[in-house]
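job 3f2a | input accepted
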Amino acid sequence: MSKRARLLVVLLVLVAGGIFLYPTFNWYYMVPGDQKELAAGSKEQIQAYARGRASRDLVELKAIVSEDQEAAVPEKYSFLIDEAEKNYKMEKRDFPEVWTIAAVLNSLGSEKSVFSALENHFRQSLLDVKDSSGKILQLGLDLSGGMSILLEADIDSLERRLGHTASAEDQNQAIDRAMEILNNRIDKFGVTEPQIRRQGSTQIAIEIPGAADPERVNTFLMGKGSLNFHIVDQEASQLLATYFEEHPGDVFAEDGSVKRLDFLEAGKVVRGYYTKDEYGIDQLQRYVVVTEEIGLDGSHIQEATVANHPVTGKPVINFTLDQEGGEILFKLTSANDGKTLAVLLDDKVKSMAVINEPIRERVQMSGFDRAEATNLALVLRTAAMPVDLKINNQQAVGASLGEDSIRQGLAAISLGFLLVIVFMLIYYLGAGLIADIALILNLVLIISVLSAFNLTLTLTSIAGIILTVGMAVDANVIIFERIKEEYRLGKSPEASVKAGFRKAFWTIMDANITTFIAALVL
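job 3f2a | predicted structure (522 res):
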């Protein structure tokens, strides 16, 4: 490979490293603290904030216009100009020389449109911040704290699945299995360094590093095992819709549940059909009637992957059933040709499709956004929970190390790294400078890879990174000393460099192989 090609490869690697590292740098140094706190809330809290902020700003804009029709648009509302320009382009009108608040509001039309533009801006900005928090290098519990969650096993759900009273042994096995599944899900979702332990006879305690974001908990608890397929009764669903439209006050019972209506046949139940709104919150669209008997249990799913629909481009989940599940689904779809099959996730209808032909092992589901499809596919791959888990308590926890300990540890690590850099520079001069540049780039690339995979950084792992830098320095020292020895023997500089690298290779290889073996064991 030529020098130019090698330089190009190095530059490409550095660009890739910069791209991977940017989200982490942006999160810790550019995103304001109040934005982080807001983004760490639930989607419902983000919704409440965006709507409340939009209402306040709309009142402020109207007040400014009432005082001065020619008032210029304040900088913080400059995003409204972009919306106004879109409307002007659609109407093929010339832009005004100066955008006033009155001109912007008039271009947007009604107050509702202005409110929607404000809400969309605040919603999207927070959702973008929330999304970016899942693409950064996380700090461990010892550095930044995280979340503490206490889960309670629902023994009633276990007994329903077993079909009899759960013994102490049944409970122990179910909770042990649930802990194993939680470990798998948390690891595969990229939430590393979790601490999962059993507490009491029916509780599981989890500590997760990072921002106290409840959505992260819901991610790996999503689909607590209740993924089932039911046949839809379209005729009864239409009757139900008509009845609810004519008698809106008769929809709910006193406890908030949907009333059991007299015209529904035995063995039929009412379930809500939900879709995600702009915030990613489930919104009820309508009610449908499905058979109470489960047509196919989600436990028969062996593999699940996410893809894009070839026509619509929307996310779909392709999954494969085991042999028993394939036979059950084949009989179910053969007997109900022309009817609608509903997919229920935790008793919510998430997807429906008309059965056009018998289906056996391979099935495709739609009706999910990208994030939900990815999470659900992972939940399906990591198996169903043997027992439903309820969140008893969830709270933020502080760093396990005191601030003084963290500061002293980081100072010691930084000082050690700086001393290595200075030593190389003073002792080897120009060659030391080249080695220092390589070491810094090595450090940047390591952190870039950690950031790209959303891994967790603890004080111990920081020390490990510096130790890795020390190992790299050790290799430089060996090479440089071999070069000096060859040069003292009277060889030319070029020959000394080649011989130094060649003779130092196996010494360095031996050291790295032993380090690699130790790392595998650890």
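job 3f2a | Residues 474 and 480 are 10 Å apart (CA to CA).
job 3f2a | closed
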